[in-house]
Protein 1
Amino acid sequence: MPRLMLSDEFWSKLEKILLQEAIYNKRNLRMTVEGMLYRMRVGCPWRDLPEVFGCWNSIYKRFNAWSLSNKWNRIFKALIIDPDWEWEFIDGSYVKAHQHSAGAVGQEPQAIGKSRAGNTTKIHLAVDGCGLPV
């Protein structure tokens, strides 16, 4: 059986949000959502989903319907309202920019800085315990 992503605590929170989106607890809803998340994490074709999640075609159709009706965006926005602050991670990257990156004529500033090494840019991101940006 594949490793599941959702803890029981998080599933109860997500289940309430799904009910608000008129996604009712039909047969194997949790495994359907787990199958969607498994596919996103692993990157496999829909047909290669392990059978433990259910019929791949049913999971695909539900995922596609939720995407087309913008339900995923509303679910993610509802999850961001109450972030999990137990764990917070900050990541930063220091990227060396091309030597001609800051010399374009007539363009807006591109957030490119200068250092001893030349043109650079910095990227920072903070996420909560679920990996959601805060």
Note: The chain has a mean pLDDT of 78.
Protein 2
Amino acid sequence: DIREVVGAKKRQYLVLENVRNLTGPRHTETWKTIIETIRAAGYSVSRQPVVLTPHLIPKEHGGAPQVRDRVFILCERDERRANLEVSPLMCRDFFSEQWSPDQWRIADYLTPDREIDEIDRYRLGAKECAWLEAWDYFVKNIETDVLPGFPIWVDAFVVDPAIPHDTPDWERNFLEKNSQFYREHQQFIDCWLKMKWGKTSKLCVHEFPLSRQRFEWQARKKHPTRSRRTIRDLVCQMRPSGIRVKPATYLPALVAITQTSIVGPGIEGVDQYRTITPLEAARLQGIPGGIFARAGVSERAAYKQLGNAVNVGVVALAMRALWGELPSETEGEPLLFACAQSSSGFSQAVGSQG
């Protein structure tokens, strides 16, 4: 309970973190209550949320190639200003003029396959490889330079879709667009649907799980035309909504182990499709990977903890904003960058200011 925290610990600085949805339209009253509670305890805090994500922050300022939007509530104890409306101390696009997230290279954060112990633990099984093989053939051989921006649904490949009248507008839109796409490429798609995939099972696409019959192409920046187009040099994610692929710049947020990002064999240092390792996931959070081994934490538990963790570099940057020490555009390595590499160092930095 925030009231208990701010009442029990009269610190000079207070930082709270939560998911971005906390500031959404469904939680307006909750957000209002949080701000009023903090101000009533004597803290100056902006009513406007500070939303930060590591992939929009340059590496030298604590950023990392991972999308992880989180809301930070940055508070300073100052009873004279507690009820004043103040501007946010930091904004999401603070570095936008000097940094683009497309500059990231996820390969720089990966351990080469040859250096990973028991690499087979992270490689995909035969079925998963068959799913990706089928979709790789699809993107390589379909005769169009522009793949759809909408999700491709194999189960919607029909000439004349029968759409119930009560179908939501968004779903109707996808069904109609998939039907049109099918009509435009029917000869190729019909041949592709008859092909079998996999080294052992030999399954047609219609025999894949429904979620693996759905595909989201988000890699137009990497492959703007059909020439040399493939998914082998992309990042893949097996989502409940389908297989999503994107350029190997930055990764989606670390979430459940069943959705761990997959790197393809066209990425530097990767020999076969595999998931990222706990050590690589730790790098994306700014956490020394050896912590889990020393603590005897299982890999499953490590993935879960990393998926729930805050990014150390982002927290360090948020603290700099609170202390009035944000970097200028021309500034080099910031004061607290070392703290983003060491959880103990960050704790000491925060403690010295509290």
Note: The chain has two domains: 2-105+311-353, 112-276.
